[in-house]
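Anyone up for a design puzzle?
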């Protein structure tokens, strides 16, 4: 027994070292490339370390997947925010799947002679498979799950064999922790339960271990109590990844059976023909080489007369494919997500190969050839990947997950330019991969409302060759951003839009990407920007502690974008992440432009803002070309991501009115037929009018001007009085039938108010004036220094003849 245990330990250690070696060779050999999800999780770790934000609910993943954050955080704290630490956790976790598969096979089939052989082949296959290594290079969190799945299975079956409470307890602990690794882990828990039921009915003696199974389940539930509390408080988080616009349950779609069959076909193709992620040039070969695929078929065929453990493994493997079958992200191989099922597929394939090995060994001396073929095919797949797939992918003009400044940052160019402040566009910094790559030298993030630059200060400006595009596309003509992030003194400062904020100097220098394509241009420059005028906003305090304190907006124009900058302040700690929304409403309350935003794409989320820090957030909204002149209401609000509801204001409303914007009247060349100089109140004057007789009445054009913006929306009245002083016709309405109220008039602006008044023949006098609709109080009307009677202006007397 001691010799067997020693050999087991030796093989386990050797397989662990072998798997670590193959994974870290890939880590060094593959192109850099970080995943956006993994970089964003690393930014959450930065928030956790720097700002004490506990990232239990990870918004951008629509799921509570915080385990990798807490694993990476101490590494970042000790060794800095670098790619080695970010990718290292995923690489190590992925490598552990290989020895874990070996242990799981030994525990599943301890009484079977092929257990060791199956374990060795499964471990070697996983160690040499490029599948997990490709994802490990991105540092993605889903690589934590395979090893945890296999360890759970190993402890579970060790408990079923030995009947000891400790094994079941450890299985429950790992199962519970796995639920915080990746959303598909919820499917693993269901699949594990299904596999256990199959095993129990295949071998009734296992029912004797029911107490152990119950204890495992109880411990797992205790571990996931925080997650269960979240699911109860916010039910949408349980299946949030299937409720996004990019994914949903197939049962909510037409013809779900066709979708399931099609996706099943893609799963089989990925296993035995070729896998294609669609966005990863390193895919192409099948997940299982031909020897393993044959072994998988053998394992399924012999299942009828196999042991309970064998049937458990088949059921578990099959059920792990179900989450992908019932979720929909498109009908293509690139939308097929089966990584959580792959370790069990490898184990099942290895079991089939081990059965074949044993069958051949009983009939000849060449059973070992099966192992040789598995080893040779696994080595060939690894060799092909390194010597054919990677070089072919690297010959492409641009790696599609790359963007220009990310490549520049990966080459550590930006981090080497620390002798002067660095300016990069805000849109580039909001690429979370770039933000992470800069976090080691610029770990602090702050508002730039108080400018961190002085007028005339020397700066270095880095402009990407292809902003918001892959590196192979050309840049927009004359691209110079006006919204900057300043990298200075270990901090990234977010500035509001400042057109003309920099003056480029000297000769620019081009920085190439790793594939030789121009990635960015570096300019010496001088800072010339000043803060824009901020208009205060009152009564905009939200119940969760956010407060809107000011805004700045460019002018509205039909068919043109408008830039709105909102200045937010966090008065207290926020209980959860929030989104912010901004809308421009017309007079009927309909939104003509809107944006729903996760602030700064998560690189500096609201929960991480410093208390009382004022943050400028800018949005560009497109005004429809058919928008009519008049007032538009700019509103803003806060959306509670967990509660899936708007956060109310302290006053009870669910949105804050930021300001009234206006779309000005188009310029007109019309001139009044009669000049007139009359003042109404302190801010409005009538500069002229035109009276034109028409069938059934007359047209009246009033030329109004504002000397200052009026405080109220005044109503224009036109009285037509006969010879007896009686009003025989009148027209009371706000200018342009209420579409262009006086409260939005600008100083010096001329407003042409056209009216048609129906009249009967006769001699009439025409009076006009203004009054407040709510009180009926007329504005004082003054002509040539004298106040008009009844505060109404006599335009002229006119004779109407039909």
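Challenge accepted. My sequence:
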């Amino acid at each position: 027994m001691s010799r067997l245990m020693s050999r087991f330990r030796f093989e386990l250690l050797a397989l662990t070292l072998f798997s670590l070696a193959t994974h870290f060779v890939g880590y060094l050999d593959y192109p850099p490339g970080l995943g956006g999800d993994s970089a964003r999780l690393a930014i959450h770790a930065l928030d956790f370390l720097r700002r004490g934000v506990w990232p239990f609910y990870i918004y951008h993943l629509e799921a509570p997947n915080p385990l990798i954050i807490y694993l990476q955080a101490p590494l970042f704290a000790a060794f800095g925010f670098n790619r080695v630490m970010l990718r290292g956790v995923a690489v190590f976790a992925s490598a552990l799947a290989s020895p874990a598969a070996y242990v799981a096979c030994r525990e599943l089939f301890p009484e079977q002679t092929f257990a060791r052989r199956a374990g060795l082949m499964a471990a070697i296959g996983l160690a040499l498979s490029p599948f997990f290594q490709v994802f490990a290079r991105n540092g993605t969190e889903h690589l934590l799950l395979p090893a945890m799945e296999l360890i759970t299975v190993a402890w579970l079956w060790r408990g079923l064999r030995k009947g000891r409470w400790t094994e079941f307890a450890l299985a429950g602990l790992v199962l519970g922790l796995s639920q915080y690794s990746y959303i598909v882990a919820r499917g693993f828990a269901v699949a594990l339960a299904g596999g256990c039921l199959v095993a129990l009915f295949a071998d009734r003696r296992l029912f004797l271990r029911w107490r152990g199974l119950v204890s495992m389940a109880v411990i797992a539930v205790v571990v996931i109590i925080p997650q269960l509390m979240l699911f109860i408080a916010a039910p949408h988080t349980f299946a949030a990844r299937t409720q996004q616009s990019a994914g949903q349950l197939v049962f909510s779609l037409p013809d779900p059976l066709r979708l399931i069959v099609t996706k099943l076909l893609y799963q089989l193709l990925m296993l035995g023909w070729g896998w294609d992620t669609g966005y990863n040039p390193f895919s192409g070969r099948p997940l299982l080489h031909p020897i393993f695929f044959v072994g998988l078929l053998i394992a399924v065929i012999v299942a009828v007369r196999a042991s309970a453990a064998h049937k458990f493994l088949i059921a578990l493997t099959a059920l792990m494919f179900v989450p992908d079958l019932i979720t929909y992200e498109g009908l293509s191989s690139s939308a097929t997500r089966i990584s959580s099922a792959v370790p069990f597929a490898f184990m099942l394939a290895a079991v089939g190969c081990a059965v074949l090995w044993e069958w051949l060994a009983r009939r000849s001396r060449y059973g070992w050839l099966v192992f040789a073929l598995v080893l040779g095919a696994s080595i060939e797949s690894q060799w092909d990947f390194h010597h054919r797939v990677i070089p072919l992918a690297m010959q492409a003009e641009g790696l599609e997950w790359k963007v220009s400044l990310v490549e520049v940052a990966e080459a550590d160019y930006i981090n080497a330019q620390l002798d002067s402040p660095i300016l990069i566009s805000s849109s580039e910094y909001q690429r979370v991969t770039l933000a992470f790559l800069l976090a080691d030298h610029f770990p602090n993030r702050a508002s730039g409302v108080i400018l961190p630059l002085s007028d005339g200060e020397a700066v270095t400006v880095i402009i990407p060759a292809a902003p918001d595009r892959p590196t192979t596309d050309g840049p927009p003509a004359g691209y110079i951003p006006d919204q900057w992030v300043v990298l200075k003194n270990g901090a990234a400062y977010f500035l509001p839009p400042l057109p003309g904020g920099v003056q480029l100097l000297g000769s620019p220098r081009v920085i190439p990407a790793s594939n030789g394509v121009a990635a960015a241009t570096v300019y010496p420059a001088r800072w010339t920007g000043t803060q824009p005028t901020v208009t205060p906003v009152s009564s905009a305090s939200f119940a969760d502690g956010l407060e809107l304190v000011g805004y700045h907006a460019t002018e509205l124009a039909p068919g043109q974008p408008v830039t709105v900058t909102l200045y937010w302040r966090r008065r207290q700690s926020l209980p959860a992440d929030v989104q912010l929304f901004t809308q421009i409403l017309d007079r009927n309350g309909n939104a003509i432009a809107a944006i729903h935003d996760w602030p700064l794409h998560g690189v500096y989320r609201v929960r991480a803002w410093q208390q009382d820090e004022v943050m400028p957030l800018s949005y560009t909204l497109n005004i429809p070309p058919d928008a009519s002149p008049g007032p538009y209401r700019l509103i803003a609000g806060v959306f509670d991501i967990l509660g899936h509801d708007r956060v109310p204001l302290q006053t009870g409303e669910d949105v804050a009115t930021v300001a009234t914007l206006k779309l000005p009247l188009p310029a007109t060349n019309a001139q009044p037929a009669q000049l007139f100089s009359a003042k109404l109140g302190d801010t409005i004057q009538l500069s002229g009018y035109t009276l034109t007789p028409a069938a059934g009445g007359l047209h009246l054009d009033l030329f109004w001007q504002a000397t200052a913006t009026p405080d109220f929306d005044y109503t224009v009245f036109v009285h037509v009085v006969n010879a007896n002083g009686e009003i025989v016709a009148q027209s009371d309405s706000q200018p342009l039938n209420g579409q262009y109220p006086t409260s939005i008039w600008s100083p010096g602006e001329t407003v042409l108010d056209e009216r048609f008044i129906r009249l009967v023949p006769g001699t009439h006098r025409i009076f006009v004036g203004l009054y407040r609709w709510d009180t009926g109080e007329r504005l004082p009307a003054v002509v040539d220094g004298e106040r008009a009677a009844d505060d109404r202006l006599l335009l002229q007397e006119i004779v109407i003849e039909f």
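A detail worth pointing out: The longest strand covers residues 630-640.
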